Amino acid sequence: MIKITEKPIDVHKVIETASARGAGAVNVFIGTVRDQAHNKKVVWLEYEAYESMAVTETRKIIEQAANRWALLGWAVSHRVGTLKPGEVAVAVAVSTKHRKESFEACQFIIDKLKENVPIFKKEVFEDGEEWVSARPTASPALN
Amino acid sequence: MKHTIKTFGIARDIMGGREIVVNATGRTVGDLRQQLLRDYPKLEDLRSLFIAVNLAYVDDEVVLTESDEIALIPPVSGG
After folding, report:
1. pLDDT tens digits for B56-69?
2. The overall pTM is greater than 0.95
3. For B44, nearest residue in chain A (alpha carbons)
4. CA-CA-CA-CA torsion for A28, A113, B46, B4, nearest 10 degrees?
5. CA A52 → CA A134, B1, B41, B67, distances in Å?
6. What DSSP character marks residue B48?
7. ipTM
8. How near does any CA of chain B get to the CA of A40, in Å?
9. DSSP code of A134?
10. Shortest Cα–Cα distance, A62 to chain B (Å)
């Protein structure tokens, strides 16, 4: 399952979708919205996606992961729209036979997603707003 | 050749629309990037600027056709 959604992410659904009967490990990454960035209070974040390409790029990442680790199940869900601090922005879940490969595969998928998938995030502060990582002179990205 | 280019994030703010129609003077992806940087100099300030064709990142040498779906991808920041 690869999902780009405006609705709150159902983490249990993501885990359930990724969980395979033959798996001895289910690994989950949940990315949440922090309440501050660059020592400023974040009021909300706005996420937008080039949805069709985001799905295609995520599928490529899953294929790469499946070539390296024996994935028994997987699911990725990314939220778009306006998100408040504490809300879930992304959930990645994989299941494998043993725990080591589940940790590695899950980290690989979220790392590659952050590098390649065309999703864009704007931080809105009390006194302004900024597209994250857009400019080289800007403060470090919200990672 | 006329291209309609989808824009996202900061690139959309700079270019002022979700879709921009460009009368391309060159043939390749690299030519189009150079033209866009000339027409919208603020794009130079971005950390990276990729052009996606038909939902994939492509090299500068790729030749564009009128039926291609073209998008301008500023630095991504998902997750």
Report:
1. 999 999 999 999 99
2. no
3. A135
4. -130
5. 22, 25, 28, 17
6. -
7. 0.95
8. 19
9. -
10. 15
